[in-house]
Automatic annotation (TrEMBL):
This is NAD(P)H-dependent flavin oxidoreductase. Keywords: Flavoprotein, FMN, Oxidoreductase. Pfam families: NMO (PF03060). One of its GO terms (molecular function) is oxidoreductase activity. Its EC number is 1.13.12.-. It is an enzyme of class 1 (oxidoreductase).
Length: 372
């Protein structure tokens, strides 16, 4: 499959067959993407415990047929504070706690049997934990370390480079991409407004060529946001990208259901969603992120709802709520990052089938464009 020129070939740089990078919180999906010739990137924010991440990466080492994989950490550039979950919890207003409790009750979301540990779901959003995750990852064989919130600190980049591992960062504006490359980032993921999760205000069609023109002579650029089929992969390549970064598409992978409570309800909600059934809000983490629209998101948009807190306080506030929502398995009350591309998916399939269709349709689209 042809790719744009620039600082080499993303396939050679990452040791992959196809210029397709797939982000996912599921190690089963990540492994399947890598086995199919792409690069599966495991989202690490759900891991509060270094030993749990270490064991998961052991599993990836053993289940990727020797193919490369990557890891994605979350290092907020401007976190309001750092400390234990108990310390952070003192900064959350009682008004916000009362709102969450009242909303869960109104939505019929039951409590978890036995409750949850203090700080569950928040520690992975802290610098100290993200750094520990990088240290754990480098004891394995990642082909890439990515930061979902921009450029990692310089010492983290240096640590990865010393181990021979390239670093990627997501950017929503040209100025962010330029700063990242100046810091030593090797791969910029230009993520447009359409994308799921943390995303900016500029659409992919505008952002991607701007980023390629600004930094494409110094770093590889991947297109992200609104990519779910081969025609969209070809479009990203035509705009100058060296490859694509996909996230939301893999939520409908058959492998996603392994080990994730509430995955059946989430996939059911996605199957019935259109491209207009997402909302960009700060309710998930404190930073703007695109989520599946649901009764949970609508409650936060009501006039009497409090303003979301800054990161990582908002995540600490809603961490238990998200666990309860997942366990409730109600498709109408999903709290899940998802991009506008979800409107084109109508079935659950194995990753291998999804990847085969992506590659074939990309080749067909490129051949058709060549006729012009």
């Amino acid at each position: 499959m042809a790719t744009a020129t620039g600082q080499g070939d993303i396939r050679d740089r990452l040791g992959i067959e196809h210029p397709i990078v797939g982000f996912t919180p599921s190690e089963h999906v990540a492994a399947a993407i890598s086995r199919a010739g792409g690069l599966g990137v495991l989202g690490c924010v759900r891991f509060n415990d270094a030993e749990e991440l270490d064991a998961t990466l052991d599993w990836l080492d053993a289940n990727t047929d020797g193919k490369p994989y990557g890891v994605d950490v979350v290092m907020p550039m401007n976190a309001p504070t750092e400390g234990s979950a108990i310390d952070l919890s003192t900064l959350i207003p009682q008004e916000h706690r009362d709102f969450v409790d009242r909303t869960l009750e109104e939505l019929g979301v039951p409590a978890l049997p036995g409750g949850v540990a203090e700080g569950a779901g928040v520690l992975g959003w802290l610098h100290s934990v993200a750094r520990a995750q990088v240290d754990v990852a480098l004891r394995h064989r990642p082909a890439l370390i990515a930061n979902a919130l921009g450029s990692p600190p310089k010492d983290v980049i240096d640590e990865a480079h010393a181990a021979g591992v390239p670093v990627a960062a997501l950017a929503g504006r040209v100025v962010h991409a330029q700063r990242q490359v100046d810091d030593g980032v090797d791969i910029v993921v230009a993520q447009g407004h359409e994308a799921g999760g943390h995303t900016g205000e500029i659409t992919s069609m505008v952002l991607l060529p701007e980023v390629v023109d600004a930094v494409g002579d110094r770093a590889l650029v991947l297109g992200a946001g609104g990519i779910g089929c081969g025609r969209q992969v070809a479009a990203a390549l035509a705009l100058g990208a060296s490859g694509v970064w996909m996230g939301s598409a893999w939520l409908l992978a058959e492998e996603y259901g392994k080990g994730f409570p509430g995955s059946a309800a989430m996939q059911d909600a996605l199957l019935h969603a259109s491209s207009s059934d997402t909302v960009r809000s700060r309710i998930y983490s404190g930073k703007p992120a695109r989520l599946l629209r649901s009764r949970w998101s609508e409650a936060w948009a009501a006039p009497d709802a409090p303003e979301p807190l800054p990161m990582p306080l908002q995540n600490l506030l809603v961490a238990e709520a998200h666990l309860r929502i997942s366990a409730a398995e109600d498709p109408g009350v999903i709290a899940m990052p998802a991009g506008q591309i979800i409107g084109r998916f109508d079935r659950i399939r194995p990753v291998a089938d999804m990847m085969a269709d992506l590659v074939e349709e990309t080749r067909t689209a490129i051949a058709r464009l060549a006729a012009f």
